[in-house]
Amino acid sequence: MKFQKSILLIFLTLLLTGIRSGAQPNNMLPFSDPESQGVASTGILHFLEAAGKSRNELHGFVFLRHGNVISEGWWDPYSASLKHTLYSTSKSFTATAVGFAVSEKKLNLSDKVISFFPDDLPDTVSAWLSALTVKDLLTMSGGQDPEPTVPVVSKESNWVKAFLAWPIVHQPGTHFLYNSLGSFMLSAIVQKVTGEKIIDYLRPRLFEPLGIEGEDWETSPRGVNTGGWGLRLKTDDMAKFGQLFLQKGKWNGKELLPASWIAEASTEKIIQHPDMPQSKRDSSDWEQGYCYQMWRCRHNAYRGDGAFGQFIIVMPDEDAVIAITAETPDMQDELNLVWKYLLPAMHPAKLSPDKKDRALLQKTLSGLSLPKPAKTVSSSLENSISGKTYRMETNEKRIGDMSFAFTSGKCLLTLKTDTATYNLSFGLNDWQKGETARLGPTLLSSERFNSLPFSVSQVAGIYRWADAHTLELTLRYVESPHTETTVCHFDGNKLSVVVQNSFDFGKKKTELSGERDR
């Protein structure tokens, strides 16, 4: 009987391992322990420990070596099944759509941008606008200064026309200036030559072969994927994209993209600040050269790079890929953790098994969680304010009414705006997971009202009483990097509220005030 149980256990282990390690090759990457792929578990442990002590709030992490997942983890309430806003890491996927269009001879990098949009040209087309090419957009050398993204997306409905009307003050191809609307133009160009949004164009060429599912991408008011931002993928999907580049465009033995395009797209095309002293350049991963919507890194690596620390780091010398989702005020510091702890953990040959550190690593990865607010104090106000409505004075959040209901360790916050009512649930000292149609915080909030491809956001809420009269509500939008904190202070019939978004890092707050409805 014991023998039969052992055989059954071995069978189940092999079955689960097979599913986990590539029995469905389009959907899963193979798994391995770190030492078998020449990586010391202790180095990964030190990385996780250092990240936890730093200002970098990591949300997800996938580490590939020699094509195997050797370590992955998500910090609760984030999880492997959730997508995450990539911000400018989206640009690398936009450039890849250009690569497919070039390989299919639908497009040339030397094509003039104005040739695609004859109906959107300004009355006077300057010589430099006439000279602007697809390649100039890819290398962030379009010559506009300042770049037009924020004023255009916040005010205009025809982004293509507004971009073409924006002055070009440097000869295209000669000056680097980061330009997210230029990346949008690449998306618009691919849509022009293929007849498809780039998310639809990439689906059979990239997403489906890599087993990427559930992706979505924001659009402009005129139905063009934003290109420079707005793509949402899972962390392991990001790692797969990096692995495709590491494998020079091949996936499961099939060439998806020519190796020549991978090399072209991932090598230096322009230097950001050519007059910067070499000693200063050596300390920055933003001064190693720019590729096609990717950045060169130190240590002969390159990366897709998004605001607040969304990274796909490809390390050819180490045959490794590292994907990270996060929210950080210091993206260089986040990369420094990779160079300090993960890079030296990689070795050219297999390492001896380290069962102790491997077991500790697995325990650490399975127990990752973001710090919760400090424990609550008791408050007698819960009974007196539960079910009551507070009428708020006119405010920029457009919140008209706020009401609270406390039951069984949960707080239900109801917000009424001029257009909708939202119910948000918070757990007492623990995350209450749910969803809401209320828009979460983002860098380009004014443009999101017309562009989101989803109607609800996944959220996790937690509450505590900071003191007997102060209620603190924390709401994480867990498919984005960002969190909204609402602090409510009750004083008799009056309510004062302070709202802060995490990406302001304490520098900005919105204050509201109201009074209980009698």
Description:
With 518 residues, the protein is an alpha+beta fold. The chain has 3 domains: 31-82 and 234-369, Beta-lactamase (3-Layer(aba) Sandwich), CATH 3.40.710; 90-232, 3-Layer(aba) Sandwich (Beta-lactamase); 381-516, Lipocalin. It is 29% helix and 24% strand. It contains 16 helices and 21 strands. It has helices at 2-20, 41-53, 90-103, 127-131, 134-138, 149-155, 159-165, 180-194, 198-207, 235-246, 259-265, 278-281, 331-342, 355-366, 381-385, 445-448, and strands at 57-65, 68-74, 84-85, 216-217, 231-233, 250-251, 254-255, 295-296, 302-306, 310-315, 320-327, 389-392, 399-407, 410-417, 421-428, 432-436, 457-467, 470-477, 483-491, 494-501, 510-516. Strand 9 and strand 10 form a beta hairpin. Helix 3 runs parallel beside helix 8. The longest helix is centred in the first third of the chain and has 19 residues, at 2-20.
